[in-house]
Design brief:
With about 290 residues, the protein is of the alpha/beta class. Helix content is about 45%, strand content about 15%. The chain has a domain of about 170 residues: 3-Layer(aba) Sandwich (Rossmann fold), CATH 3.40.50.
Length: about 290
């Protein structure tokens, strides 16, 4: 089989490439900049979802596609461009990354933008799998390491109801299973962790891990908005603020059925937050705080 990975350079995409490489599998990776380093067995192909005419060469001979298009103001159109190009190229199977319980919170912009893409995939005639991950553990290491390990603050205003955050290693294993094995198609797959985590619980876990106090920044979204204004564009801060309001009011918890489905598609019980802390975050923090 020939695989094309769309969205292979972000937090989830890089993990999928590592998982494919460790399994001895090869894939093409759609990239605006094909000069970036990739794991062994991965081949960069130049293309841009916002320029549909660049997708046909990348899809030649491809039978399976993983699609993760980034949060942009034209996210839906980019996703639809990818689906149309895959259908035109006679791709057999497409695996798409959506969001856990997406249909229950369509007032959140980056949840709603995924619905037309899902509808197009289901109408395409291709085999499909829709992966629906919760908030990623690895977001902490990718975006908040300095705040947590250096500043002693956990900044995500996740509230006190609880969300069933997930490890991107589990997302990657599910994606590779759906791409390469039979028995996982024509179904939505929730990808969740085993515990509903609150902002305070996460801060306490970092306190234990690092041996020094990490304070939860709290639920004040006006304060969060001001703190992140230098780092996020207005449209994305607005989107995330609506998401955090939803998390604070309703949470995003996994059901027993969600956990069972996750275990099936990943191939093992989902990793815990403590697994992530010791396996992934602690080495990052130790490098950050090591003497020069």
């Amino acid at each position: 089989m020939s695989i094309l990975i769309i969205g292979g350079t972000g937090v989830v995409g890089r993990e999928i490439l590592r998982t494919l490489s460790k399994s001895g599998l090869r894939a093409r990776v759609l990239m605006r900049d094909p000069q970036l380093d990739l794991p062994l067995g991965m081949e960069a192909v130049k293309g841009d979802l916002s320029r549909p005419n660049t997708l046909e060469p990348a899809l030649q001979g491809v039978s399976r596609v993983f699609l993760l298009n980034a949060l942009t103001q034209d996210e839906t159109q980019q996703g639809l461009n990818a689906v149309a190009a895959a259908k035109q190229a006679n791709v057999r199977r497409i695996v798409y990354l959506s969001v856990h319980r997406c249909h229950e919170a369509l007032h959140i912009p980056h949840f709603a933008t995924k619905q037309p893409v899902v509808a197009a995939i289901k109408a395409s005639g291709m085999e499909w799998s829709i992966l629906e991950p919760n908030n990623f553990f690895q977001n902490d290491g990718a975006f908040f390491t300095h705040a947590i390990a250096g500043g002693g603050v956990y900044p995500q205003p996740l509230g006190s109801v609880g969300i069933s955050r997930v490890d991107t290693r589990d997302i990657a294993e599910a994606a590779v299973n759906c791409l390469t094995r039979d028995g996982f198609t024509d179904r939505h797959w929730p990808l969740v962790g085993p515990e509903a985590l609150t902002g305070a619980r996460i801060a306490a876990a970092y306190t234990r891990l690092l041996g020094r106090k990490v304070q939860y920044a709290g639920d004040n979204l006006d304060a969060w908005d001001m703190a992140f204004k230098p780092f996020l564009p207005d449209w994305l801060r607005h989107d995330f603020r609506i998401m955090y309001e939803h998390f604070q009011a309703r949470g995003l918890k996994a059901s027993a059925e969600d956990l069972a489905a996750c275990r099936w598609v990943v191939g093992h019980p989902p990793r815990s937050f403590d697994d992530y802390l010791h396996d992934v975050f602690l080495p990052i923090a130790e490098r950050l705080t090591a003497p020069a």
